[in-house]
Write a structure and sequence with these properties.
By secondary structure, the protein is an alpha+beta fold. The protein has three domains: 83 residues, no CATH class; 30 residues; 69 residues, no CATH class. Helices cover 53% and strands 8% of the residues. The longest helix has 22 residues. The structure holds zinc ion (ZN).
Amino acid sequence: MQKGLISAVKAVMPDVHHRFCVWHLWKNFNKNWKDLQLRGLLWECARATTYQEFRDGMEKIKRLNEDAWAYLEKWPMNAWTRSLFSHKPKLDSICNNACEVFNAKIKDARAKPIITLLEEVRMFVMRTIAKNKVKLQNHTGKLTPVIKSRLEKVRKESKHWKPIWTGDNGYEKFEVHRHPTNHVVDIGKRLCTCQFWMLTGIPCVHACATLSRVNK
Ligand SMILES: [Zn+2]
């Protein structure tokens, strides 16, 4: 169903990056395989930010149940695993919760004529903006509250990682270690091999560790 929808949307907007809602993917998957371990692995694969992590998860699924693995293999992977998402949108969402919330909000207005519907949507958006403005009256800093707390969590976690300078002239390239993993960070290009930074625009634990090492 989703696959058909994706090809239909692709025909209209060919240059746009499309994603599945993993929750819906899992709902369909769950009709055939109601296994807790498989469920956990499916979400692990979807949340993986590196291709290696994704492949490791898929291998585990294959060993547990080959049919379940074949079912997942047939979907376009760049539409459901973060590890293959485009880096352009700076959004790592794997579910369409935002659309669901919006849909639920306009439920009553949906059956109305188009102008009335649009008018109610406009009013809803206006009221939401006004409410958020009140909530943020005493908020300081450049970042929004959700992103601020997400970054704070990442910053705390970054203390467990050890950046090692690779010797480049710009003092920007580092290898960041924590047994048994290591990643490569380039703070000049805003890259990390874990891909979290490129996917979200928020520095990952490795980038934060490096930034603090160079006093930035
Ligand atoms: Zn990283």
